[in-house]
Amino acid sequence: xxxxxxxxxxxxxxxxxxxxxxxxxxxxxxxxxxxxxxxxxxxxxxxxxxxxxxxxxxxxxxxxxxxxxxxxxxxxxxxxxxxxxxxxxxxxxxxxxxxxxxxxxxxxxxxxxxxxxxxxxxxxxxxxxxxxxxxxxxxxxxxxxxxxxxxxxxxxxxxxxxxxxxxxxxxxxxxxxxxxxxxxxxxxxxxxxxxxxxxxxxxxxxxxxxxxxxxxxxxxxxxxxxxxxxxxxxxxxxxxxxxxxxxxxxxxxxxxxxxxxxxxxxxxxxxxxxxxxxxxxxxxxxxxxxxxxxxxxxxxxxxxxxxxxxxxxxxxxxxxxxxxxxxxxxxxxxxxxxxxxxxxxx
Length: 346
Hints:
By secondary structure, the chain is mainly beta. It is built from 2 helices and 35 strands.
């Protein structure tokens, strides 16, 4: 005969597990996790164990300025990524300090992050890593939408962006483009302290669609510096940057290629964007500054249409323009278009 105690042991264990899970707001009968713990480290532990989870944030999180590791780990050498959905549900993550990690997430791969505010965060690469972003170190075939960064700083060696250090669509010639939609970076400082590729939204982008985004603050790099994207390269098709607004000081501090929207672009269309502030290229090594109110340096197929520059554009060298600093046609059969644009910069 089985004793009642032995019979009840599995049921008691199951009850304890369900209580622990419910304390995190997890419904074990659903694929959606409603997160209720206010500690970022608890959420990080869960995401590490469930990288394909679909999470809805049901509370604000506060890091209280304590050093924080990315939700999905802090080793970019390991090909590990968050592949699920993170819905901030209108909530805010405050006061996180990332000095030993690479952003809220290390890598997004086919993932979606949306409806979230990040406030008062500092992402500072004291480990000299070269890729840093407020939401993710790197996006691959992923989507970020309706995300706001407020009063944040992002600093790394190179590849630095308010949303992502790198955004790579059609990664390995597979999947979709990267999409960044309706994101706002407000009063931010974005800095690539040693090298290149700093953008208010993305440092370096391939096959990416960026729509209805805003940036205000400062962007600095030695080269390839933009209010939206530092360096954009279309590989498997032409990308789009549209309906974006910049009010910022954008500076290439040592070489060239500074633009109010993009420092460098190829195979991309920039449509209905507006720039205010100052755009500056301080080239200390040759005469080419390639500094423009909308684009610093445009190569291959580029179309800039219905854009407005109100920013002051200055440079120490040649190739400075209110809309585009320099157009370089590397293929004589491919044209670069500047249409219906207005320059009111002082």
